Amino acid sequence: MSIKIAVVAQLNQAKYDEMHTSLDNAWFELLAELDCSIHILPNHLDSSKKLLETVKPDGIILTGGGEFSLDFDTDPRSQLEAFILSKYTHLPILAVCRGMQTMHLLAGGELKKVNGHVAKHYPIVFANKVTSQNSYHNLGFDRCTDDYITLSSAEDGVIKAMQHKKYQWLGIMWHPERFNNDHTFNINLMKNLFFKVLQ
């Protein structure tokens, strides 16, 4: 059964004082391996609300890149992410890197500087399986808030994956769309998250 996935994309400064909503083409290549249609959400809250109401997605992805900010006037992407996490608790959500940090921050957590987690590959123990995944972040945390449980941590204690205790939300600190050593693992991870409620 085909499903609809809404995707929060990056907000990037372009030339001539333009701000562009953009998504790495690698996401399309990755999601093409799932039976889904992809719906990119504009980094404009009212427009995204209308799109979400029209599309009625079966799941949402919060992609990586940049840092979450509570200054919604200057960061509409953060405003959109906060809205989604407050209103779409009934949907499965995959939060990638920045997305997982956003989940953590909005649950009352804090981030700290971490060393050795940029342009590296880490062994990840996840669901009793060992996989090797990439790492591209210099902020992290070593303790989840009460709303989440830790699924995997690096050797230095930095959390690499977490799951909400009540909702079907999964946060991961690696980029499944970027080069990694276990592509099949990421495909299966997304299938289990997004198709589980349909099986």
Give a description of the structure.
The chain is 26% helix and 33% strand. Helix 3 (76-87) crosses helix 4. It has a seven-stranded mixed β-sheet, with helices on both faces. Strands 2-3 form a two-stranded antiparallel sheet. A two-stranded antiparallel ribbon has the order 7-10. It contains five helices and 13 strands. Helix 3 (76-87) links the parallel strand 5 (59-62) and strand 6 (93-96).
Keywords:
globular, single chain, seven-stranded mixed beta sheet, 199 residues, 33% strand, alpha/beta, two-stranded antiparallel ribbon
Instruction: Please report which band the strand proportion falls in: under 5%, 5-15%, 15-25%, 25-35%, 35-45% or over 45%.
Output: 25-35%
Structural category is alpha/beta
Shape descriptor reads: globular
Computed Rg = 16 Å
* Average pLDDT number: 91
- The total of helices stands at 5
Give the CA-CA distance, first to last residue. 9 Å
Contiguous low-pLDDT stretches (5 residues minimum) are none
**Fraction of helical residues:** 25-40%
**Strand numbers in spatial order across the main sheet:** 4-1-5-6-13-12-11
Q: Sheet with the most strands?
A: 7 strands, mixed
Order of helices and strands: EEEHEHEHEHEEEEEEEH
Total number of beta strands: 13
